[in-house]
Design goal:
- By secondary structure, the protein is of the alpha+beta class.
- The chain is built from five helices and ten strands; from the N terminus they run αααββββββββββαα.
- It has helices at residues 2-11, 15-21, 38-47, 163-179, 183-204; strands at 75-80, 85-92, 94-99, 102-106, 113-117, 120-126, 129-135, 138-142, 147-152, 155-157.
- The strands form two sheets. The chain has a five-stranded mixed β-sheet with strand order 2-1-9-8-5, with no helix packed on it.
- β3 and β4 (102-106) form a beta hairpin.
- The chain is extended.
């Protein structure tokens, strides 16, 4: 009886095995849909001929270049904030981002990755030049075609940060943390300490 049950489990494909065999396409493999839904556009023009049909966000995006067959020499970086674009299609040698798991270097040919970012130093390396930013948080998306999209909530060039203000802020939030009486006050003070500590480390480290 036990052998019969065991043979059933061994010969029957499991759901996990079926999931493993399914591979979702990369963004570079998805067909371009910038032309939109033809049927929708035609129906729209019949009903509202004097107004152009609405466009979806994907129609404003340029299609990703295909994954190269050889290792590229440059990494193409897009570094954007909610209110500005710091880098757009910039070809660099390397980018180092402050991931929650630690500092992560991104080079040409890096494996596809999604990394959550924490307050810390982001550095962009191009030849002998290094541009440094302090970012608050965000995400880094590394694509298989040596493209990297870095999305940050806040960012400021490191050379525009005042060390005296950072030290004053660190002292202020450290005192608030020691005198906090509620969980909310402790949480707010701890965030201030963490951010100013990361700023101080970026300036001195």
């Amino acid at each position: 009886m036990i052998r019969q049950v065991a043979s059933r489990f061994l010969t029957r494909p499991t759901a996990a095995a079926a999931v493993v065999t399914i591979r979702r396409p990369f963004s570079t493999e998805v067909t371009d849909s910038s032309s939109g839904d033809t049927a929708f556009v035609e129906a729209w023009k019949k009903v509202v001929p004097n107004i152009d049909p609405p466009r979806t966000p994907s129609q404003y995006m340029q299609p990703r270049p295909p994954t190269p067959s050889t290792l590229p020499t440059k990494l193409t970086v897009n570094f954007v904030l909610p209110y500005a674009s710091e880098l757009s299609g910039k070809e660099v040698d390397m980018v180092i981002v402050p991931a929650t798991t630690g500092q992560m270097g991104i080079l040409p040919g890096h494996v596809p990755t999604i990394a959550e970012l924490k307050p810390g130093l982001l550095s962009v390396h191009e030849g002998n030049e290094v541009k440094k930013y302090f970012i608050s948080s965000g995400f880094a998306f590394v694509h298989p075609n040596s493209y990297a999209d870095i999305l940050a909530v806040e960012a400021v060039p490191l050379d525009k940060v005042d060390p005296a203000e950072v030290q004053a802020g660190l002292n202020k939030f450290t005192q608030k943390l020691s005198s906090a009486s509620t969980e909310l006050e402790k949480a707010e003070a701890q965030i201030g300490v963490d951010v100013h500590s990361a700023l101080n480390f970026a300036l001195t480290g």
